[in-house]
């Protein structure tokens, strides 16, 4: 049985691990913002990324969670844009990582949900 696969017995691909790594990077960026900006909301955002990564390692992981992750990250991007683009340089870096993350998790959803068969 693979770690957290919707279909038991499948192994994680490099793309699965890359998505988990990008989520950790996004959590780290938000922890940094929380620390330097002394704003608790960034710690909450980082916490959701950490919970998502931990959830990845459970048997409850399903393809739909990839879509939830994409919506979550896209929503954060929209909120950043509407909020006046606070922390512009870090926000742009976060946006670049987020776009890669969204593309990757949508691809993984497509692959894991069986649409590619």
Enumerate how many helices there are, as a single number.
Answer: 4
The count of DSSP E runs of length 2 or more, i.e. the number of strands, is 0
Distance between the termini: 21 Å
How much beta, percentage-wise?
under 5%
Unreliable parts: 1-9
- What can be said about the biggest beta sheet? none
Helix percent band? over 70%
Q: Any idea what the shape is? A: globular
Mean pLDDT, to the nearest integer, reads: 80
Order of helices and strands: HHHH
User: Measured on Cα atoms, how large is the radius of gyration?
Assistant: 15 Å
Structural class: mainly alpha
Keywords: Membrane, Plasmid, Transmembrane, Transmembrane helix
Transmembrane segments: 17-35, 42-60, 66-83, 90-110
Task: Describe the structure in your own words.
By secondary structure, the chain is an all-alpha fold. The chain is built from 4 helices and no strands. Helix 1 (14-37) packs antiparallel against helix 2 (40-56) and helix 3 (63-82) packs antiparallel against helix 4. The longest helix has 25 residues, at 88-112. The chain is globular, with a radius of gyration of 15 Å. The two termini are 21 Å apart. The chain crosses the membrane at residues 17-35, 42-60, 66-83, 90-110. Keywords: Membrane, Plasmid, Transmembrane, Transmembrane helix.
Tell me briefly what this model is.
The chain has helices at 14-37, 40-56, 63-82, 88-112.
Any chance you could write out the topology, listing elements then pairs?
Blueprint (H helix, E strand, L loop, with lengths): L13 H24 L2 H17 L6 H20 L5 H25 L5
Helix pairs in contact: 1-2, 1-4, 3-4
